[in-house]
Amino acid sequence: MHLKNVSQRIGSQLLGGTRFAGGFAALTSRTVKEFFLPPFPFKLILEQLYAIGLQSFSLVLITGLAVGSVMALQFGFGLARFGGTLYVPKITALTVLREMGPVFTSLLVAGRIGSGMASEIASMKVTQQIDAIRALGTSPIQRIVIPRLVACLIALPILTMIADYSAIFGAMIVSASELKIGFAFFISKTLESMTMTDLFTGLAKTVVFAFFIAITACWRGLNTEGGTEGVGKSTTWVVVTNFIFIMIADFFLTKLFIITVYPKY
Question: Mutual orientation of helices 57-79 and 146-178 as an angle, nearest 10°?
Fold first, then answer.
């Protein structure tokens, strides 16, 4: 009986994964097709930009400062054993731009915005507001999916840049106060090590993450069933799925950039 239950759960998970993959591809295809159809929802996009971007500004800023400060401490005291404290600015800047900034910002947005999108759309679904939109002759894709997708694609790279530079600023403050590394030295070494390639590869990751976060949240919300209980399940599912995707996709994107973009040392 136990083996039967395990096999049923595995089969259910595989079936759910296949259903999600097909639904994700179908929703992406419909979104691309309807993206170029008039009217373009400028007002709805601005509303979503405010919800995703401006309302996440303080959270991203504080998180960036904290991450940069902790990284400077860890690298500083770790490298001090080998006399490598002076390498802290370079290591911190590259780590933040390439990895920590994009990943931490995307995780924050996935947790805050992805769950919010899913719960909002799922609530509209179970209260039949989606059906009312269709009855009025309006496409739910244009009213719901496209504004959230475009806003997420715009806001997440900007939030990532804010997180990057706030993290570097936090690392500079900690380096000066704890590691006795002057501001001028920190800035010169950071600028010396940073390149536009490092910045753009980090931002490229956030574009992939933003696309997945928005489409996943919209798909799950549009396919929610089971009333208020279903809304809660959809919200949790979206957060977990986005977190898993971001961590796995980050590995493969990093591997791709190492092979194709990053300079060979």
Answer: 40
